[in-house]
Amino acid sequence: MTPKPPYQQRLPNGFSFPMIPVGHGSFSMGSDAEEAFGVESPVHSATIDYLFYIGQFPVTQDLWLAVMGGENPSYFKGGRRPVERVSWYDAAVFCNVLNAQCGYEPVYFSDPAFRQPYGQTQTGIALNNEGPVYRNPAAPGYRLPSEAEWEYAARGGPRGSKALYTGSDVLDEVGWYYDNSHGETKPVGLKLPNELDIFDMSGNVWEWCEDHWHSKYDDAPDDGSAWVDAEKQGDSRVRRGGSWINFAQFCRSSSRSGYAPTSRPIDVGFRLVLVSLPV
Questions:
Q1: Bridge partners of 28?
Q2: Which of 117, 178, 185, 243 has the fewest CB atoms within 10 Å of its CB?
Q3: Does domain 7-274 have CATH number 3.90.1580.10?
Q4: Cβ proximity of 225 and 188 under 8 Å
Q5: Do the Cβ atoms of 255 and 41 come closer than 8 Å?
Q6: Rounded distance, CA 254 to CA 40, Å?
């Protein structure tokens, strides 16, 4: 079956980027295989009963600059390379700025009543790199993926791939990692995509998810939503996919880790999710 064509989001300045539709379905999240880490258990069923769109590529440096302007934060410069040296907080601000340009309401706020958009000041936009941050679940705009949405898309969505990596059991076919990256990020889209025509979910850069970090899946949501705890403001957030600096084991579709949301390392970026298209 041919994958559905991506949705092309066009910005007011003419820049555009593709978003891939992911249909509803259920999947087994996590892994208890021999190569899995303990944080990937217990394996559990998750059901996503809605259509969502996920970035065909991680956010590139070209897209970051088209939305944010200013200076490129990345260590490895290149317009088609993933943006990196962006914190979880930076990614939340990016989503709010992008939403303003695309005609959506803000998604992330500094208060639980959703009155103060996160990153917005009286004089403009600020990458303050600190919380608290609350997502308005009723806001339909661009946001970070939940951990479940990320893994579901990585595994091919309703196509249900059981491949170790995103689209293949051979990482060299689909991802950049320690053995083939030459010690740097690479332009997106150079390796093979997965079953949904999504690229670079295994390796290249780790990708921030919305969820707070939990070291086990006990009591995890089973409906695709992010596992966020109000009392964990400032605590580690989930990152997925492995990176150019990691060994293959870290680049599997089920691999996961937590990281401080203030950190801006040279191997972490992010990917966008959108649930509702404009009418």
A1: 45
A2: 178
A3: yes
A4: no
A5: no
A6: 7
